Amino acid sequence: MPSLPVRSPQELLHPRPAGLYCPAGDFYIDPVQPVARALITHGHADHARAGHGTVWASPQTLDIMAIRYGEDFCQTRIPVEDRVDIAEVQATFTPAGHVLGSMQITVDDGNTAITVSGDYARVDNPACAAFALAPCDVFVTEATFGLPVFNHPSPQSEVEKLLRSVAAQPDRCHLVGAYALGKAQRVIALLRQAGWDRPIYIHGALQRLCDYHIEQGIDLGELRPATVKQGKDAFKGQIILGPPSAFAATWAQRFPDPVICFASGWMQVRARARQRGVELPLILSDHVDWPDLTRTIQDLSPQEVWVTHGREDALVRWCELNQIKARPLRLVGYEEEAD
């Protein structure tokens, strides 16, 4: 048998303006521009864009892209449950624990394995598959919360905080800002786990993605549209979810004296909560915080770490102090707010 070509990690995968490119497979991972061949880690808009030729992704991510962009979001869809051979490499998909359908992608040419984590989380998330380690020689990681100050509380404690506030203020409704894909469904599922069995009201922008989660077996309980046709008093003591954009529109003004909440890892930064006019910050993140970020690197023990976006310099420095080779990739086009 012919021997496999020996490539350096940089030859196997390297940054281009469109994103991370693999010459041996002639594809990009999470490209920020339309390309002929793309592997997609998950359905958030800064990672999954329309206009590609062929797209490889988990079946759920492909469905989510069709929901968000239309059925013709690409020319050819190829669902990947586990692994796929593409030209001279094998791509293995491993759950990332970020949102429904999210995957890490490990590119292996037989000599070097590089895992591109996309966005990932290692805490309980009843709305998606749990994170699993993807062994590799090079680990490509985000660093959204890549500073030691980010040590997030447990999701359950934050949901209990919300429920205590609801119980203490029965004459007010609680408006919870949550991103349409992943965060909203996770908040709802956590509320159900915590025993909230009453209807949860949602903005219309959340409906289709919530319906899809239910179709995929995620128990969200009874959901109702958050309209004021039944009278404003009907929302006293209720929990209402909407996308962050709706809080700057007239929609949020329809509800009398609401408690404004926002579910995000960034709510640990008090200044951000104040800027948004948040009365009840809920520190709920779908990204690893600093302890889980560094724990993941320790668990994988890769030869190298590449940092894609976020607090790159702090994580690179931590790696160096722990005798791990590391470098920032300085990729552009990925939003820190998609949390």
UniProtKB/TrEMBL annotation:
<dbReference type="GO" id="GO:0004527">
    <property type="term" value="F:exonuclease activity"/>
</dbReference>
<dbReference type="InterPro" id="IPR050698">
    <property type="entry name" value="MBL"/>
</dbReference>
<keyword id="KW-0540">Nuclease</keyword>
<dbReference type="InterPro" id="IPR036866">
    <property type="entry name" value="RibonucZ/Hydroxyglut_hydro"/>
</dbReference>
<keyword id="KW-0436">Ligase</keyword>
<protein>
    <submittedName>
        <fullName>Putative exonuclease, DNA ligase-associated</fullName>
    </submittedName>
</protein>
<dbReference type="GO" id="GO:0004521">
    <property type="term" value="F:RNA endonuclease activity"/>
</dbReference>
<keyword id="KW-0269">Exonuclease</keyword>
<dbReference type="InterPro" id="IPR026360">
    <property type="entry name" value="Xnuc_lig_assoc"/>
</dbReference>
<dbReference type="GO" id="GO:0016874">
    <property type="term" value="F:ligase activity"/>
</dbReference>
<keyword id="KW-0378">Hydrolase</keyword>
